[in-house]
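Retry 2 of 3 after timeout on previous attempt. Resubmitting structure tokens to design endpoint.
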């Protein structure tokens, strides 16, 4: 058996930045709160909780102290309310997400109809939508196109982790039925690199292990891409989730990681596979 890794591994730069800021804040202060998990990785979430970071659902649940804005960002209305309440705000929004937020605001101020391609329930999308009141969020093509056909002066942006294939499909359909459509590909460059790397690797192996939080959009998309490229795809959060029987008879196994996955988790999966299959060779590790 050969074990190969996707080209891009470990934290993306946005997650790395947020993670380090969170560690610094919790080591220096008490009463540091975040609205939602800092990143979609249970091991990192647990580490930060042990370090003192408190997770709440609503701004009203924060009595005092610091609101730490996670990588996904928050709507500007929430940040303004936090400052009105006298909370200290530390903005650790991923720079790529901040770029999209500012772009959405500018397009809205130009009088354009902002269309956000992504999951309407995802915190990043909610944060972007807060910068463009009245925007239209689209995740899947509807059976009834009436509402989309009524849109005018459309400007498209995207959730940073959306699947590139879905982005191209939705953009093509929107442009096909509307006179004026401006398109801004705001998919994170790291996300694009991971998706391309996973696709390339999956076409060369029998099975892929995708490591990351099961509630992470970018990690789920990597598994979907691996399957579409013809490999068996297994989404796991750590080496503890890996099963030996998945790889009986397989000659080549690929390893890919989500943007919120620390590199050591991939090392542990490789170590487990080589322990099970002593003849296995880890290529490029």
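Retry 2 succeeded. Sequence:
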């Amino acid at each position: 058996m050969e074990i190969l890794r996707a080209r891009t591994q470990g934290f993306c730069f946005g997650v790395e930045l947020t993670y380090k800021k969170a560690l610094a804040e919790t080591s220096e202060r008490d009463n540091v709160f975040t609205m939602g998990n800092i990143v979609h990785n249970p091991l990192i979430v647990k580490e930060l909780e042990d370090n003192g970071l408190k997770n709440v659902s609503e701004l009203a649940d924060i009595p005092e102290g610091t609101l730490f804005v996670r990588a996904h960002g928050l709507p500007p209305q929430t940040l303004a309310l936090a400052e009105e309440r006298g909370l200290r705000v530390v903005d650790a929004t991923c720079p790529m997400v901040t770029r999209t937020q500012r772009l959405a605001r500018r397009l809205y101020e130009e009088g354009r109809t902002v269309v956000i391609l992504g999951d309407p329930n995802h915190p990043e999308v909610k944060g972007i939508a807060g910068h463009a009141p009245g925007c239209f969020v689209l995740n899947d093509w509807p059976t009834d196109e009436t509402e989309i056909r009524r849109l005018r002066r459309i400007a498209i942006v995207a959730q940073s982790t959306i699947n590139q294939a879905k982005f191209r499909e939705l953009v093509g359909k929107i442009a096909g039925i509307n006179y004026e459509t401006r398109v801004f590909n705001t998919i994170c460059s790291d996300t694009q690199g991971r998706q391309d790397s996973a696709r390339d690797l999956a076409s060369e192996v029998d099975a892929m292990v995708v490591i990351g939080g099961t509630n992470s959009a970018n990690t789920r998309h990597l598994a979907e891409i691996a399957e579409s490229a013809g490999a068996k795809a297994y989404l796991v959060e750590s080496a503890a989730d890996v099963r030996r029987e998945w790889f009986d008879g397989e000659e080549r196994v690929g390893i890919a990681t989500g943007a919120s996955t620390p590199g050591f988790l991939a090392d542990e999966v490789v170590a487990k596979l080589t322990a099970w299959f002593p003849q296995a060779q880890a290529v490029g590790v």
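Attempt log closed. The chain has three domains: 2-11+189-283, 13-93, 96-183.
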